[in-house]
Design a protein that fits this description.
This protein is α/β, with parallel strands linked by helices. It is 34% helix and 11% strand. It has helices at residues 25-35, 69-82, 90-100, 114-124, 164-178, 200-207, 221-232, 250-262, 267-270, 285-295, 317-326, 376-379, 428-443, 447-467, 487-492, 524-534, 558-575, and strands spanning 46-49, 55-58, 109-110, 150-151, 160-161, 215-217, 241-245, 271-274, 299-305, 330-334, 353-356, 371-374, 497-500, 513-518, 537-538, 540-542, 546-549. The strands form 5 sheets. It has a 7-stranded mixed sheet with strand order 6-12-11-10-9-7-8, with helices on both faces. Strands 13-14-17-16 form a 4-stranded antiparallel sheet. β9, α11 and β10 form a beta-alpha-beta unit. The longest helix has 21 residues, at 447-467. The protein is globular. The protein starts with 24 loop residues before the first helix and ends in an 8-residue tail after the last helix. Residues 1-20, 114-143 are annotated as: Disordered. It is found in: Cytoplasm. Belongs to the kynureninase family. Its EC number is 3.7.1.3.
């Protein structure tokens, strides 16, 4: 197009810019896309206006990137329709929220306030005084959004919905007014003796169980893993190893190693933890299946995270499970970061067992009651579990047949289904807190599919805005930065940068982007996280170098994403006011 100077994409370019008439930029972005046939557009770049009055250049589609022609066309048309000049224009975020937030449940949740955040920081520093301003009021959450923090930390602890307190208080009233009779006669119709019947059908839908009997609401995540592994990790002389991803959540690792040691084995021999290829942050499916095929005859149990807590990578559960079964392995999953985040079809995928917590995307509250799944293949035949010939299974009275449970028989009669792995009566207040949140999943248009579609939009927008910042570093050059750069690249490098560890393909991630701050090992993340919090941005810091941002589709907005990018950019630009790195 005449009048525009377009920067050519080199082979090492992640993003680049071109200049032109800013008033015509949205039209140009749209025109360029429509000019190129879709089957040819993989070889061309899409230029979108950025905040520098130039263009953000989304490179040609490669198989490892998320920017398909159709995806890029959607964003180009939205930008054009909004009349805005930049992805990070506040008016563009408002426009996106106006067209894409239909059915959003933001108003159903309570957001932390900036004053509460500031007071918490002062308390941590032991400098809080009684007469300071910004004290916490009786009402912990205001309807005024201008005073609310931007909360992108739902992957660590989900927000409280506005019905939770009311429903929990109702249970306290039943306890006060009816005491033990609340187990059997409940003013709200929620008898405590079968309180989990409220949540199990919803949990079943979220994990893709065909029947609610394949799930159980019980315990805590690590405890449930131990209970399940007592049954499903039965090492023999030939088949005794556990296969997992490296750097899984530490509690999982402790569970795996202690289970191995409990059987008198050495974790150095019996635990296989897969690491990414050199220079990469995440595992490739072909490397996982290769390890399964290579070691399969010695593997007793394969257990991965549905979504990796640190990198945000969503593993292909169906394919890994199938590969494990082909080698005769039991396959289980930790779904702490997956349930309520990505679509799951555990029954159809033939997953043997899974466990999860409920305080992240399920918004059930800190330390909330957890859950587990056991495929009916294991529970439909009563001889497979327990008894003299089945796999051992730990038992408790709430895993006994409900019809005779309160008759207290000596002979254990297990529930047909995952319920036989429940040991004790449930924490009623925690179940009710979970129930108050799970009801919202049913009220969201399209259910989990609708939430997933919105999640991809929010996370994709956040990713594109982050990639447009001058401090962004292509993941190919992040490890060893800045020494990983060539001389020309080093001349343009920033003293402080970041990369995105999380896969760019939407199907390979959930509602999370993990940013690693560079150069690594310098402690940069701690100060950046502190400054973000001062600016009212609540994210999740993970030592040594990572901050995780999680735009939760149920309550986060495009404006939340934009504000986060704006705040991060201001921090990094201030830190990069020093001279650039020289060669």
């Amino acid at each position: 197009m005449p009048g525009y100077s377009v920067t050519q994409l080199s082979s090492d370019a992640g993003v680049s810019e071109c200049t032109g008439d800013s008033k015509k930029q949205p039209v140009f972005a749209l025109y360029l896309l429509e000019l190129i046939p879709e089957d040819k557009s993989n070889d061309r770049a899409l230029f979108l206006p950025n905040e520098h009055q130039g263009f953000l250049c989304i490179p040609p589609t490669r198989k490892e990137m998320s920017s398909t022609p159709a995806h890029r066309a959607i964003w180009a048309r939205r930008l054009s329709a909004s009349g805005c000049l930049s992805l990070t224009d506040p008016n563009f975020a408002v426009y996106l929220d106006s067209i894409a937030c239909v059915g959003g449940l933001r108003s159903e949740f309570r957001f932390p306030r900036k004053e509460v955040k500031s007071n918490s920081q002062r308390a941590d520093n032991n400098t809080e005084s009684n007469d300071q301003t910004g004290a916490v009021e009786d009402e912990p959450n205001s309807e005024d959004e201008s005073n609310a923090c931007v909360y992108l930390c739902g992957n660590s602890l989900g927000l409280q919905n506005r019905r939770t307190a009311e429903m929990v208080l109702a249970e306290l009233d039943v306890w006060a007014d009816q005491a033990v009779q609340g187990h059997f006669v409940h003013s709200e119709g929620r008898n405590w003796k079968n309180i989990t019947d409220l949540v199990n059908p919803i949990l079943a839908r979220l994990v893709g169980a065909t029947k609610s009997t394949e799930v159980a609401c019980t315990g805590s995540l690590t405890t449930n893993l131990h209970i399940l592994m007592t049954t499903f990790y039965r090492p023999t002389k030939e088949r005794y190893k556990i296969l997992c991803e490296a750097h899984c959540f530490p509690s999982d690792l402790y569970a795996f190693t202690s289970q191995i040691e409990m059987h008198g084995l050495d974790p150095n021999d019996a635990l296989i933890s897969l690491t990414p290829r050199p220079g990469e942050f995440t595992l490739r499916l072909e490397d996982i299946t290769s390890a399964i095929n290579r070691e399969g005859q010695s593997i007793a149990l394969i257990i991965f995270s549905g979504v990796q807590f640190y990198t945000g990578q969503a593993f292909p559960i169906k394919q890994i499970t199938a590969a494990g079964h082909q080698q005769g392995c039991i396959v289980g999953w930790d779904l702490a970061h997956a349930i309520g985040n990505i679509p799951l079809e555990l029954h159809d995928w033939q997953v043997d067992f899974a466990a999860w917590c409920s305080y992240k995307y399920l918004n059930a509250g800190p330390g909330a009651i957890a859950g587990l799944f056991v495929h009916e293949n294991w529970t439909s035949d009563p001889t497979k579990l327990g008894g003299p010939h089945g796999r051992p299974r730990l038992a408790g009275w709430f895993g006994h047949n409900p019809a005779t449970r309160f008759q207290m028989p000596d002979q254990y009669e297990p529930i047909r289904g995952a319920g036989q792995f429940v040991h004790s009566n449930s924490d009623v207040l925690s179940v009710i807190s979970l129930y108050s949140s799970l009801q919202l999943f049913g009220s969201y248009p399209g259910g989990m599919s609708g939430l997933r579609a919105r999640s991809e939009e929010l996370t994709g927008y956040l990713e594109m805005c982050l990639q447009g910042l001058s401090s962004y570093v292509d993941p190919r050059y992040a490890i060893g930065y800045p020494d990983s750069l060539n001389e020309q690249q080093r001349s343009r490098a920033r003293a402080v940068g970041f990369t995105i560890m999380t896969p760019s393909i939407p199907a390979q991630r959930g509602s999370q982007l993990s940013l690693s701050f560079l150069p690594s090992g310098k402690g940069l993340m701690i100060e950046i996280a502190r400054q973000l919090l001062e600016l009212g941005i609540v994210a999740d810091e993970r030592e040594p170098d990572v901050i995780r941002f999680s735009p939760v589709p149920m309550y986060n907005s495009f404006e939340d994403c934009r504000k986060t990018v704006e705040a991060l950019n201001s921090i990094l630009e201030a830190q990069n006011s020093a001279p650039a790195i020289s060669s």
